[in-house]
Structures are given as C-alpha cells and as structure tokens.
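Continuing the batch. This is chain 6 of the set; chains 1 through 5 are on the previous pages. Same settings as before, nothing changed between runs. Recording input and output for traceability.
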Amino acid sequence: MSARRNRPAPKPWSMKWIVLAIVIFVVGYTLVNIYYRKPGPAFRPYEDMNKRATTARLLNAGWQKLPVELTRPASKPGFGLAASVSRSSAGLGTELEASFAEKPRLLATIDKVTASTDATHGSTYSVFFTASLTDQNFQVSRIEALLRGNEIVLIPVIEKLPDHLLSRWEDADYCASVPTDRLAPGRYTARLAAKGPAAQWTFTVR
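Output for chain 6:
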C-alpha cells in the first residue's frame, strides 16, 4: 500500500508528448479521411433505397432512362415545323406511377409546349415548355426522361427550396434537351407529365 501511495506523478513533459501524439493522430486521421472519401452526396438510406427500388421496377416494366438536360432559356430554340400538341390524362398514369417507390412531386400544370416534328439521329431533341409550380416554396430540380418502345415520358420533378428562399414566379419557361443517339429511327409519342393534364405530341427521328 505504501508503495502505491508513493508512486511519482507523471512528469509535465511526458503529458505534453501524450497530448501532442493525440493531436497528430486526430489531424492525420482527418486528412486521410478527407483524401480517400468518395466524392458525391452522403449516403441517405431511405432516399437511396427508394431510388434503387424505382429503377428496378422501371426496368422490370420495360422502361429505360434517357439522359436529359434541363435549362431555363431566355428565348425559344429554333425549330423547323412545330409539332401539334394535345392534352392527355393527368399525372404519371396508373401503370407508370406504380413503378415509383415514392411518387415524385410534379408541376401543377404544363401551360404551353413547343417542339419540332422531327429530329436527326445523333442530334439533340429540344422541348420548350411553360409550366406552373404548385407552390413558390418549390423549384424544378430535374427532368426524368423514360423510354419504352416508341413512347417517351418526360417528368419534371420539383423539390423544396431552403426555408429562406422562394421561386420568383409561379410559372416559368424551361427547355428539356434529349440526345437522340439512343433512339432508333422511327416515329415516337412524347408526353410531358404534370399534376394537371399532360401535354402529348409525336415526332420522327430520321
């Protein structure tokens, strides 16, 4: 017992080395973690699982995704002959909606669409449209483009803005551009979906 009581206290210089070693370890670990961390957004289990489930269901139903670029143009793209646009059923449609693990938020309405009657294979097919938001707390974040046979469905998806931001207008002009290198020559039916009636038209890839 007396030997335990008389044990000398750690010297100040040894404590400094211990603290320094801890600091070096923490800094080194942080740098290595940052250097080797995978780029991209953090893993979000619920959202990522829904995306994987949706992709699997779409593939099983015969749909494939097409790349599409969304821009907000100041003026309409140049066309030759404009396609005749009609109205079809609202929403995604019962069959397509069943393929989504979580139903995407849609624009309130598609107000006007301008698109060409044809496109050259290997070029880009552009669709200019004016649409209305359901709420100024949201904005159009992306467009999903789905292909099955000779049917193409364009789905503008909206997402909530940060709490302190609002969309400037409830309606806006957009342009969706789809590369045609994955479209075989032929006639296609295109549908632009919204909560209200969808816009529908046909065009030919030559």
